[in-house]
Amino acid sequence: MALLEIRNVSRCFGDFTAVNNISLSIEAGEFFTLLGPSGCGKTTLLRMIAGFDLPNAGQIILDGVDLVGIPPEQRPVCTVFQNYALFPHMTVAGNIAFPLKMAKMSPPEIKQKVVEALEDVRLIGFGARFPHELSGGQRQRVAVARALVSRPKLLLLDEPLSAMDAKLREQMQIELINLQKEVGITFVYVTHDQTEALALSHRIAVLNHGQVEQLDEPSRIYSYPRTRFVADFIGTCNLFDGTIGAIGAIGALDASNELSEVIVANGASDTAERENTSGLAVHVVTTMPPKTPPQMSLMVAGLGRVTAALPPDAEIGRKGTLALRPEKIRISAVICENSADNHFKGYVKELLYLGDVTVYIVQTEGGATIEALLANSAAGRAKFFEVGDTVEVAWSFDAGHFLYA
Ligand SMILES: Nc1ncnc2c1ncn2[C@@H]1O[C@H](COP(=O)(O)OP(=O)(O)OP(=O)(O)O)[C@@H](O)[C@H]1O
After folding, report:
1. Atom of ligand 1 at shortest distance to CA of 36?
2. Which residue has its alpha carbon closest to ligand 1 atom 8?
3. DSSP string spanning 289-323?
4. Same domain, 172 and 249
5. Is 279 inside any structural domain?
6. What contacts 24+ positions apart, CB below 8 Å, involve 223-230?
7. pTM of the model
8. What is the pLDDT of residue 164?
9. Quick check: 340 pLDDT over 90?
10. How many Å lie between the centroid of ligand 1 and the Cα of residue 364?
């Protein structure tokens, strides 16, 4: 059984449903993140785990015990907030010792545990300082130490780094990863920052309108978003609405016959009539090397025919979205023909120089807008193209990810 089981939990405020029948499990030792835009319900869910709020329906089970009905201070759960919430009149050591004093631990034991906690967050030597004598990063480390000192089963962190500048945030992210590994306590982390979620988490639940849209490892969330919302919310993504025009290999897809029901079976060498899932007769036309991944062509406004990897349950005429990350797109000057599966001529409409990379917004001849990302360091050049340059954008058939949503 998982350490934390959230079963069919809902929370309504009047007519408004902030958390809508969420179920998820978190394993012991996981760094688990609730990620979503403002108002998606992540803090409400966290508050219910902590006991500061109660669900209207559902169960929250920690280590086999239903927490609903148990007051916050009796739950083996601690929370770290964005604003640190340290006692200003107490020293660092006093702040960290506070929950141990409340638990009536003996003074020598408290002293020992405070030293260990200061070690955990690399603040040895800071015990006698007051919070106002610390930097933001140091204050948050004290808050984490105070939350961890009583060794809760679960540490909840509500946007703990959002008040920090980018550089400090990155440093604190590394510290949190290392700390979680060292202490082995399960972290449930709330953030609206997708890069933070990708960097920190073992698994991420992406929330939208009070529901989980996708629960997965960071790399899968990024590379295989399950919905259009996830593709759009995590990183930057070109999203092309398309209709499946043909199913088969690139060579066999006849441009003059876009809606033909052509199927090329892997390894098939004969010509034969088959039936597709809708019961229609389809024509097997050619031999494919056994390892060639199945493909399809999509009809996309502004681009025309786009070749893509064949998703499950593909059928001619079915609509969906091709999600294509900007870094998967290549740009070249239109001098020689590009041999990639998909290549379109256009011009650079806009660009954004970001130092290490440049974002190019390319308008294709057909009228589509495509965002591409190029690393600048490779050729030691600041930028490869200028606004107005004629270019070709290209990507391989398996660079994108097709969604039915
Ligand atoms: N006590 C409350 N009374 C009424 N509505 C509430 C209450 N608490 C939260 N809400 C609403 O529930 C929704 C979810 O709020 P929640 O704080 O969980 O969002 P969030 O995803 O954490 O957003 P943020 O990142 O902005 O904190 C919001 O629309 C919010 O206005």
Report:
1. 21
2. 44
3. -TTPPPEEEEEETTTEEEEEEPPTT--TT-EEEEE
4. no
5. no
6. 223/401, 224/401, 225/323, 225/401, 225/403, 226/403, 226/405, 227/403, 227/405, 228/321, 228/323, 228/403, 228/405, 229/405, 230/206
7. 0.85
8. 83
9. no
10. 42
Find all residues with CB under 8 Å of 21, minimum gap 6, and list them.
8, 9, 10, 57, 58, 211
For residues 247 and 314, the answer to whether their CB atoms sit within 8 Å is: yes
* Judgement on whether residues 194 and 247 belong to the same structural domain of the protein: no
Residue 162 has what pLDDT?
86
Segment 241-286, tens digit of pLDDT = 999 999 975 544 444 433 333 343 333 333 344 444 444 444 444 4
Ligand 1 centroid to residue 43 C-alpha, Å: 7
ipTM of this complex: 0.96
Instruction: Kindly report the protein residue whose alpha carbon is nearest to atom 18 of ligand 1.
Output: 41
- Taking the C-alpha atoms of residue 297 and residue 284, their distance in angstroms, rounded to an integer, is 16
**Nearest CA owner, ligand 1 atom 25:** 38
319: burial class by Cβ within 10 Å (0-12, 13-18, 19+)? exposed
- Whichever domain contains 67, its CATH number is 3.40.50.300
CATH number, domain with residue 369: 2.40.50.140
* Distance (Å, whole) CA 60 – CA 68: 6
- Looking at residues 339-367, what average pLDDT do you find? 91
Residue 70 shares a structural domain with residue 167: yes
For range 41-70, the mean pLDDT: 95
Q: By alpha-carbon position, which residue is closest to atom 16 of ligand 1?
A: 41
Rounded distance, CA 130 to CA 109, Å? 22
Q: Is residue 99 part of a domain?
A: yes
Q: What is the arrangement of strands in the sheet containing 357-364, beginning at the earlier edge strand?
A: 330-333, 390-395, 342-353, 357-364, 369-375
Helix, strand, coil % over all residues of the chain, rounded to 5: 25, 35, 40
Low-confidence winner among 130-139, 286-295, 343-352, 376-385 (lowest mean pLDDT):
286-295
Residue closest via CA to ligand 1's atom 20 equals: 39
Range of the domain at 141: 2-227
Cα separation, 52 vs 150, in Å, equals 19
Residues in contact with ligand 1 by the CB-under-6-Å rule are 13, 18, 36, 38-44, 192
Query: Within a domain: residue 92?
Result: yes
The reported pLDDT for the residue numbered 193 is 94
Residues 8 and 146 in one domain: yes
CA of 45 to the centre of ligand 1 (A): 10
